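Human: Cast an eye over this sequence-structure pair and say how the chain folds.
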Amino acid sequence: MTPSDRVDALVVAAGRGERAGGGAPKQFRVVRGRPLVRWAVEAFTRHPRVDRVLVVVAPGRAAEAGGALAGLDVRILDRGGATRQTSVAAGLEALAADPPGSVLIHDGARPRPGAALIDRVIEALSGADGALPAVPLTDTLKETDSDGRVRRTVPRSGLHGAQTPQGFRFEVILGAHRAAAGELAATDDAALVETAGHVVRVVPGDPANLKVTEPDDFARAEGLLGERLPRTGQGFDVHRFGPGETVRLLGVDLPHSQALMGHSDADVGLHAVTDALLGALGKGDIGQHFPPGDPRWRDTDSAEFVQHARTMARDAGAEIAHVDVTIICEAPAIAPHRDRLCRSVAGLLGIPVEAVSVKATTTEGLGFTGRGEGIAALALATLLVPPAGR
């Protein structure tokens, strides 16, 4: 990977959090057994598309931050400033010594930036200088005077509440901060990029991506961080052998004396994974979404089927927690390729490779797989899904 392809995350945790009450800064207060900032940082250290994480804290807070983030592969910079803007600028200057292609800037007081949300921001950068998640405003907006009297009702059409992480091409956001230093104060980083005349896109945010600000927000964070429920789906598929020299399994071509036959690319492993994801979501099976008789799917790369299920999971607010695949065949041998297969599945699903298991077994010569007539695959997928009605 070249530096221009790298995505780094910059988590800002230098504030005092006075409005949140309590003694310690809010980012170091414990919520469901972990410091608030650790929830936020872990989301980036787990994400397969984020390469490095830098956490900016206030001077004198490095040891406290080190304890809160113990065991995580992060760098801590204790040069945060009096404002969020100066803290971000300090972090960007630190990254400039070995700059990434893009950077995600996130508030350490937002403990639940989901993997799908991070994906949306990164993907939007392919056609823009900046991207930010936002949710449409639904409440009626009132402008008031200093005495609390309503001056006017503000039309809410087209208005959104901005969230983080906000993503930017690194040279764009670094230049915007340098140009604004001492000249322009902004409430978020996108405002600086907009002022500089660059394109910033909005992607769908997440109402659960709460920023802890007031004392009551801690109770809300407790609920949000504990409310997603595990759901498991199962998928099973078989394909017969035919003429060919490679077998496509889990997105990888393995050398063999035969190939698998099917309407698409006959990737029996990815078909099972797709069905497992759809099952966990309660969304039917692969045949409903990609009918085998439909000519549109002839010779299709099965990665498209998996990514369709992944998108459905993201849109449902679900997180793919783990995928377990068992390949059932006499040949080819799976063990020598296990690492490649795990990395392939992890990449397609946007999850850490540690969240993927690939195993193989035989049927001791029994049945069609035992006779070497084809391959079967069984997959289990565990998703963390918001309760019904959310």
In short: DSSP finds twelve helices and 19 strands in the chain. The CA atoms of residues 45 and 53 lie 7 Å apart.
